[in-house]
Amino acid sequence: MPVVKLNIGGKVFQTTESTLKRFDGFFKTLLETSVPVTRDENDNYFIDRSSQHFEIILNYMRDGDVVLPDSDKSILEIQKEAQYYMLMGLVEICEKKIPKKVEKIMKSLENENQLLEVIANITDKPVLVVYYTFEECNFFKYPHDIRIKQFLATFADRFDIYFKCDSASMKINKNDEDDEDGGWSYRIYDTTNGWAQSGNFENVHKDLPCYYKGRYFKIKNYKKLFSKAK
């Protein structure tokens, strides 16, 4: 079985030709086609890449699987090398090992003190607090027809929106266990008239535009009265 020597960034590795041809990709193309190749002074194939993780690359080609290190940084480096060598199976293994980052799009309130701080700092923009619910064993109830990203995109320019875990005493529908909104509710806090409005979250797309329209005319009337008083 022919042995192939590879000079990876100045460090020489040895493996069999069959190992390098096992998977479609860089090395199989290198050995089976007439693509131009660079060789070092000892006639080894020279590849201008880092040798730091190449042993892992080789082990993957030998076994079809590999144990990755725990470091996310190292896994990302291995994934980058796997992409260069076109070893898509190893790329997928790396992707599964790296925890996916969850985009943070929601502002949350952990306790009543944080809620009071938010209310105390209201300026011109009313605060909308969405109360969500958990059941036993942390089972999460979610409104079936609400898309949070779309909801935020629609109303974030008019309301300062926060999410807070509900308690039994705060629910709008305490006795409705099968409500379609999952027990979610909302409250609006506004400097124009204090605690302004509350309701079931299933009605939020209908309620909020009406509230904001009413608020606009109320503020407009206040300004008219103030200007007349002058």
TrEMBL record:
SMART domains to which the protein is assigned, alphabetical: BTB
PANTHER family in the cross-refs: BTB DOMAIN-CONTAINING PROTEIN-RELATED, BTB/POZ DOMAIN-CONTAINING ADAPTER FOR CUL3-MEDIATED RHOA DEGRADATION PROTEIN FAMILY MEMBER
Pfam annotation, one family: BTB_2
Protein name: BTB domain-containing protein
Domain BTB residue range list: 2-70
Biological classification of the source: Eukaryota, Metazoa, Ecdysozoa, Nematoda, Chromadorea
InterPro entries the UniProt entry points to: BACURD1-3, BTB/POZ_dom, SKP1/BTB/POZ_sf, T1-type_BTB
GO terms (BP aspect): protein homooligomerization
Gene3D superfamilies assigned: Potassium Channel Kv1.1, Chain A
